[in-house]
Inverse folding.
């Protein structure tokens, strides 16, 4: 028994090192002199801490604009995606309409389609609307989430349907029942869906790269490209520091919301 538990802890330690190791290397490299980054064997602890890498990264590109663009597009996109997922899930659970099963099967099918398949149709649509290099051009194509709608639908199936029926009998409309009955019982799952959506949009690279064409509209992941010299020497210390600008907000958000994420994912969303 003790041997089995020791083996479990050893496995957890190994997995933890594998997960945390790259993050530690990123942080330590962001504080190194460039000459230390190229040393072999690798220097895991900086001998001369160089905080100036962060100033170099910030001043090498318009990171204030990158942050503003990422915050605006991420928050707006997450809010719209979660709202869309909530309404879709509620409709599949509590409304009756023709071809309901067929549409749900289509929703499941949409989860299996790679996102890159929609890049060209979305770009042509955004271009026709005149939304190239705009916030709406970055945000609107990503407001539909088959995964979020599916996850919330499965969760809502586990909620007592009698409460919604009682609210309906008391004269509440569907939106009122959704707001007053369903959403308060779905907070952990809403946080889970919101975090998944937020991290995805914060880290999105391909679509903002395609749909923007000026530095003032770039988001943080795209802005990192401006720090890499394609023709010569690259200051990897500054690149690592700039990467910390991208990673740090997501890590802080995860640690603050991890209790809600675990609660949302462990709720019994298995009813069909």
């Amino acid at each position: 028994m003790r041997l089995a538990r020791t083996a479990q802890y050893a496995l957890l330690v190994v997995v933890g090192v594998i997960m945390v190791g790259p993050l530690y290397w990123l942080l330590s490299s962001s504080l190194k002199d460039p000459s230390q980054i190229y040393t072999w064997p690798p220097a895991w602890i900086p001998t001369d801490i160089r905080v100036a890498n962060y100033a170099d990264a910030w001043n090498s590109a318009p990171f204030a604009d990158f942050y503003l663009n990422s915050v605006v597009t991420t928050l707006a996109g997450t809010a719209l995606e979660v709202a869309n997922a909530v309404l879709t899930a509620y409709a599949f659970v509590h409304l009756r309409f023709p071809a309901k099963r067929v549409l749900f099967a289509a929703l499941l099918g949409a989860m299996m389609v790679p996102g890159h398949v929609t890049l060209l149709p979305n770009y042509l649509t955004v271009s026709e609307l005149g939304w190239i290099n705009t916030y709406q051009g970055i945000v609107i194509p990503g407001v539909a989430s088959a995964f979020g709608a599916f996850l919330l639908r499965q969760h809502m199936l586990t909620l007592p349907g009698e409460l919604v029926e009682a609210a309906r009998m008391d004269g509440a409309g569907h939106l009122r029942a959704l707001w007053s009955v369903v959403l308060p019982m779905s907070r952990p799952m809403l946080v889970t869906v919101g975090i998944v959506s937020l991290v995805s949009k914060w880290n999105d690279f391909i679509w903002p790269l395609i749909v923007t064409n000026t530095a003032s509209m770039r988001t943080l992941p795209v802005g990192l490209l401006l720090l890499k010299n394609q023709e010569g020497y690259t200051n990897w210390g500054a690149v690592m520091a700039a990467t910390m600008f991208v990673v740090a907000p997501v890590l802080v958000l995860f640690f603050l919301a991890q209790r809600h994420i675990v609660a949302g994912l462990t709720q019994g969303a298995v009813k069909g």
